[in-house]
Write a structure and sequence with these properties.
CATH class of chain B: Alpha Beta
CATH architecture of chain A: 3-Layer(aba) Sandwich
Strand content of chain B: 15-25%
Distance between the termini of chain A: 21 Å
Shape of chain A: globular
Largest interface: A-B, 48 and 52 residues
Structural class of chain A: alpha/beta
Number of helices of chain B: 6
Radius of gyration of chain A: 17 Å
CATH architecture of chain B: 3-Layer(aba) Sandwich
Shape of chain B: globular
Number of helices of chain A: 4
Oligomer: heterodimer
CATH superfamily of chain B: Glutaconate Coenzyme A-transferase
Number of strands of chain B: 12
Strand order of the largest sheet of chain B: 4-3-2-1-8-11-12
Order of helices and strands of chain B: HEHEHEHEHEEEEEEHEE
Number of domains of chain B: 1
Largest sheet of chain B: 7 strands, parallel
Chain lengths: ~220, ~240
Amino acid sequence: MTEKQPLDRQTMANRIAMEFQDGWVVNLGIGIPTLCSNFVHVDKEIVYQAENGVVNYGPMAMDGEEDLWLVNAGGQYVLPQPGMATMDHADSFALIRSGYVDVTVLGAYEVAANGDFANWRVHGRKGGGIGGAMDLAVSAKNVYVIMDHTTRDGQARLVERCALPLTAVSVVKLIATNYGLVEVTPSGFVLKEIAPGYEPAEVQALTGAPMAISPDLREFQVAS
Amino acid sequence: MRNKLFDTFDAAVADIPDGASIMFSGFAGPGTPRYLIEALHRQGAKGIHAISNTPGRWGDSSLVDLSLLVQDRRVAKVSAAFTAATHPSAKLPFTDLYEAGEVEAELMPQGTLAERIRAAGAGIAGFYTPAGVGTEIAEGKEVRTFDGRVYLLELPLPADYAFIHANKADDIGNLQFRLTQRNFGPIMARAAKITIVELDEPIVEAGDLDPDSIHTPSIFVDRMVVIPADAPKEVKNQR
């Protein structure tokens, strides 16, 4: 009997990272998405791009290794590596808007069954943090989201329609949550993989929109 | 040839009037013109329209940035990609003032901010971008379809001054940046009437920098100050 266990952040990030294909240009959002770069790709080369003007940067810098002038989009120190290139902000977003980014992985507050998502303003606040998310979301070939399945109060984050102001319309294709891997299809959410020990009905009950169960549903799996 | 080199940060910002629009380079630390910001804080100008990726970071960071001016109510308006921290639990000094209605903000996607600055320094009257279509950002903006794709009209964003942190310059003002220090520097230098630069390294003579390795040509640079060797140094950010 498998022990019932929601997925931790690194496991969610690892599962999304497994979707990256050889040679993909990958942009990681602030928060859990940056953990995707910890996943070790055995037979693929991944090109990490950050909107603050760096492409092909290396892994996170350890204490003492930091170069104070080299950070990723989350402001974390990263290491240079052969092939790295830097550019100004206009060139960086030219690269993004012209479609060279294969996938952007973002955090979100809500994702709707039609692929709309909201990630820049919380309820009851004025303003917010848009950052590069709106540019990335309409330009990257694939938009993946990593987020908790519910709010801390247990409210669904996978919803019929977003209640929060949108970041972009109809762009999200895949969501990793602490309860599973959900694909966003033309007919809505489809549960593809599920956290160990959980029943599909339990995950459905935490979801704010109809969710189909994939005929190939399997336990959430991360290659190690 | 006009001498662009100033002895002190205070002298380089002395004439900035109340109500000036000022661009501030920098992204999460690298490129932040901290010594110019401190000098403007001493100088006392208020009613500033600040154009920057963020309105400064949260209070416990030891990095000096735009929040120094924000906290002392020197900033009347910010044009930025953030008015709040990315994580709702981390509060920016700006956010409280903004929510209290004491300061204005024009919030926009970061790529739109960069391109509006670029356009202002490129003689371009406006451009259409797909970022923000179908969101609050689109409200009140011209929407136009090209080749089946929907775009928003965005207009240039110029400024009176730009404060920039670069790595190295020659004595006529050709600039080089290091790694992700470059970010908004080159586009802000072109978009502002007067560009003021703080430099990591001592000035070299014209001819000592490889012309093919200059990121910002001297004609976009008006004033320069070299960061003294004994100045408080950049610190690791607190994230």
